[in-house]
């Protein structure tokens, strides 16, 4: 066992770089030398074979073997035997539905929260690590049995968080307005808006903002606040009743 260890990345590709290029040093220090193989979950994209090839190439270049769960005849057993789990980006609804369809929600929770194996998510894989996928940017192209996700942390994240463009004439809702509408509902947890290039490192009861860009934190009934890399977000891990 051991405390939970999570690396929750906003995006897989940062402008000007390759797949996971902007966070590869973070991945290496996160996984360390104990982990030899990573279990990859490609369910968020339709072409799982191509997705697994991309991920395998990257992780092998960093010195890790990669097994893709879609190639396993028993996904539950694959999770039970895994040394580390990486869930990639794509469509969050498609991803969560596949996790439910394959009975993986309780299995991944147990491996991460009880057994202490490292969990890495990017984009949709970060969304499903939180309480729910209510604050994803994705279209509901399929219908998961629930919007409740893995609950590895007691709050929600909005990956690819976008600030309003002051020069734009676009009259649609901003990301901030959408999150505010979510918080108009009762008992809604905090939402951490992770800009592209940002990631959250969780080690036990400590959470730290890492990467090259900041984050915006939304608490129900309060004004959003701006945070720089290095910010200690450990207070978000205290699973308090939102009504308090």
UniProtKB/TrEMBL annotation:
Gene3D superfamilies: 3.40.50.880. The lineage of its organism: Eukaryota, Metazoa, Chordata, Craniata, Vertebrata. NCBIfam families: PRK05282.1 (NF003642). This is dipeptidase E. Hydrolyzes dipeptides containing N-terminal aspartate residues. GO terms for biological process: proteolysis. The keyword 4Fe-4S does not apply. It is an enzyme of class 3 (hydrolase). One of its GO terms (molecular function) is serine-type peptidase activity. Belongs to the peptidase S51 family. Keywords: Cytoplasm, Dipeptidase, Hydrolase, Protease, Serine protease. It comes from Aramus guarauna (Limpkin). SUPFAM superfamilies: Class I glutamine amidotransferase-like. It catalyses: Dipeptidase E catalyzes the hydrolysis of dipeptides Asp-|-Xaa. It does not act on peptides with N-terminal Glu, Asn or Gln, nor does it cleave isoaspartyl peptides. The keyword Cytoplasm applies. Its EC number is 3.4.13.21. It is found in: Cytoplasm. GO terms for cellular component: cytoplasm. InterPro entries: Class_I_gatase-like (IPR029062), Peptidase_S51 (IPR005320).
């Amino acid at each position: 066992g051991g405390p939970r260890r999570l690396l929750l990345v906003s995006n897989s590709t940062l402008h000007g770089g390759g797949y996971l290029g902007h966070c590869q040093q973070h991945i290496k220090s996160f996984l360390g030398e104990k982990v030899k193989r990573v279990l990859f979950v490609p369910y968020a994209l339709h072409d799982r074979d191509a997705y697994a090839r991309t991920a395998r190439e990257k992780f092998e270049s960093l010195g890790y073997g990669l097994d893709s769960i879609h190639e396993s005849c028993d996904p539950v057993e694959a999770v039970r035997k895994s040394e580390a789990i990486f869930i990639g980006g794509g469509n969050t609804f498609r991803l969560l539905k596949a996790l439910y369809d394959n009975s993986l929600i309780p299995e991944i929770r147990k491996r991460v929260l009880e057994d202490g194996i490292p969990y890495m998510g990017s984009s949709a894989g970060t969304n499903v690590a939180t309480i729910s996928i209510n604050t994803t940017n994705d279209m509901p192209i399929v219908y998961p049995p629930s919007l409740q996700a893995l609950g590895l942390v007691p709050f929600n994240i909005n990956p690819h968080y976008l600030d309003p463009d002051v020069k734009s004439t676009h009259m649609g809702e901003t990301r901030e307005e959408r999150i505010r509408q979510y918080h108009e509902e009762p008992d809604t947890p905090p939402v951490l808006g992770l800009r592209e290039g940002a990631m959250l490192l969780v080690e036990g009861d400590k959470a730290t903002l890492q990467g090259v860009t900041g984050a915006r934190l939304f608490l129900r009934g309060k004004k959003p606040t701006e945070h720089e890399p290095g910010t200690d977000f450990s207070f978000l891990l205290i699973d308090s009743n939102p009504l308090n």
